Every structure is written in structure tokens, then in C-alpha cells.
Amino acid sequence: MLTWFRNVWLAVSTVAHGMGVTLVTLLKTYHRDRQTFADTYTYPETPIKVKPRYRGFHRFDLTVCIGCEKCAQACPVDCIYIEKVKSPVGKGFRIDTFGIDYTKCMFCALCVEPCPVDCIFMGSNHDLSCYSRDGCIVDYAKLPLELAWGKATLNPTAVAESKVLHKPVWVKGEESPFEFAES
Fold this sequence. Notes:
three-stranded antiparallel β-sheet; two-stranded antiparallel sheet; 5 helices
């Protein structure tokens, strides 16, 4: 009978100790200005620091891509889709679609190594949230120019806006829209 009371006391005291540690941590994270418990974890306002070799969502530079499809061939899960047509201006191809299906992608970075012109590389973005599977398929040729040219970070709003475009935002051989903005 004594061991039973000892076991009950041990269980109750262990649970009380654990709840005390939780309460102390909760009170440490209270932020008076915002009236929230998020002083330690301020994720939306402050981006999470990632390690230098972190493999997040891809960055793609549309200006240097030659359409060789080596990245699509190297992908072990076949999540890269490239559609191209022969360029009417000069030689090479016009990239109509450079899509990556992030529901399949395993972020292995095997697509980065075979690229002869280094137009695709792994970024540090980790939060591309969406409400449907269609939002996880990113077509880099139809993103706004800052994103398509690798000058800005991929975000869910830009991906959603790119779903309504039917043509690429820039065709190789045309004048650069950034040159107009600078002059």
C-alpha cells in the first residue's frame, strides 16, 4: 500500500514540476508591447536565420538560362518541367515554362550541379505556403521580373499572381526592362 501512495505522489509531483517549467517558459516569452507570448519566437517579423549551406526553395536566373534541360535530366524525382521554342532572334531557345513542382521536390540540389551557366541554385527561403497543390508548382518564367531574374526572394503572393499569366514575362532577345528603369 505504501508503494502505491509513493507511485501516485511521484506521478503527481512529476506532472506538477513539468507544468511549472512550462509556465515559467510561457511567462518569459510574454511581450508587453504586443500583448502576445512571442518575444522569443518572432518568426513573421524577423526571418529565421539559416545556415550558409541551407537548401531552400530554388533561385532561378532567367537571363542566363540556355534551355539545355540538364537540370531536369539530373532531377531524381522529375519535378522540373521545361518548355522551350527555338528563338526567332539570334540562336538558342526561348524559355516558355520553367516549372518546379515543390510537392515532389526533395531539395537534394542535384539540379544545381549540372547547369553549365549556373542559372539555378538553392536559395535560403523556406516558407512558401499555399492553400492548394496548384500553388506548389512554381513557373519561374511567369514570375515577376525581380523574382525570375534571381534579384528577389520567392514569396507566396508573387507565385499566386504568376498563375494568371499565360505568357513569359520576358523573352530572350528582347531589351531588358531593367535598363529602362535605370535610365
